[in-house]
Amino acid sequence: MQIQKVLNNNVISVIDEHGKEIVVMGRGIAFQRRPGDPVDESLIDKVFRLEDHSVHERMKMLLQEVP
Fold first, then answer.
1. Degrees to nearest 5, angle at CA 55 with 27 and 11
2. Contact at 8 Å (CB) between 26 and 34?
3. What is d(CA 54, CA 29) in angstroms, rounded to the nearest whole number?
4. If you ran DSSP here, which 8-state letter would residue 44 be given?
5. Which tens digits make up the pLDDT trace of 1-47?
6. Which domains does the chain have, with CATH numbers?
7. pTM of the prediction?
8. Which spans are transmembrane here (predicted)?
């Protein structure tokens, strides 16, 4: 998996091996990481996959509003 966007130190948007965008949570998973970096899969606590594109866009907007 490759980081697409860092939302905060604990939440990232990634591209999985199938080319799908997913949201991944884990303590410190994005600490000192940049888009394009590989994901340390040992730090993953939760994975969110959205099938409907409109729901996906809404989820991204909600996550961007979280401090």
1. 10
2. no
3. 26
4. -
5. 899 999 999 999 999 888 888 999 999 999 999 999 999 999 999 99
6. 2-65 (2.30.24.10)
7. 0.71
8. none
